[in-house]
Amino acid sequence: MQVAENKIVSIEYTLKNNQGEVLDSSVGNDPLAYLHGHHNIISGLENALAGKTVGDAFSVEIPPEEAYGLRDESMTQVVPRHLFQGVDEIQPGMKFHAEAEHGVNVVTVIEVKGDQVHLDANHELAGETLHFDVVVKDIRDATAEEIEHGTTTECVCLLFCNSNKKPRILLRGFLCVCCARSGWNERSWDL
């Protein structure tokens, strides 16, 4: 069986940046399972996996345009501190959910200056060329439910959710379908 649309594909991977630093890896953990052809992972990796079979091992370099995009300085913003009601201490590096025109975005606090909070809605890997070492571990037909929901029944989101699985950074966004369906919103504030 080959990797193709509507197949659940399980991969073992190691992700590195241009400096060779390991950013994430599934080695030693469960493989990452995703629904192929439904934009569950970055497009460059999904394209590189197309046509592969179980046991195939390969390395691929993914440019920013096929990963998390180029950095966009228009996605930074300064907002008043009072919008973070219920948050006692705001520190650089904290992440929050913010309502945006096209849904919910995750924003990262860059800096806090007095009553002003500087935010960045760029993905943390925006502008980065990514290097993957991948082994295809399993391929199976997706169930009708998985195809309907557009995702595997396994949660692999960036944030910890009710499934208690180790978070992964491969998804295009930050909140997986299962988390959104369950209404999970820990540490979420409307900004």
Question: What does this 3D model show about the protein?
Answer:
There is one protein chain. The protein is mainly β and 191 residues long. The chain has three helices and nine strands. The strands form two sheets. Strands 1, 2, 3, 4 and 9 form a five-stranded antiparallel beta sheet that branches. A hairpin with a 5-residue loop joins strand 1 and strand 2. The chain is elongated and about 60 Å long. The N and C termini lie far apart (46 Å).
Question: What is the helix/strand order?
Answer: EEEHEEEEEEHH
Overall geometry: elongated
Instruction: Estimate what percentage of residues fall within beta strands.
Output: 25-35%
Mean pLDDT over the full residue set: 81
Helix share bin: under 10%
Q: Supply Rg.
A: 18 Å
N-end to C-end Cα span:
46 Å
pLDDT < 50 stretches = 156-191
Distinct helical segment count:
3
Subunit organisation of the chains:
single chain
Backbone structural class: mainly beta
Major β-sheet profile: 5 strands, antiparallel
Number of strands: 9
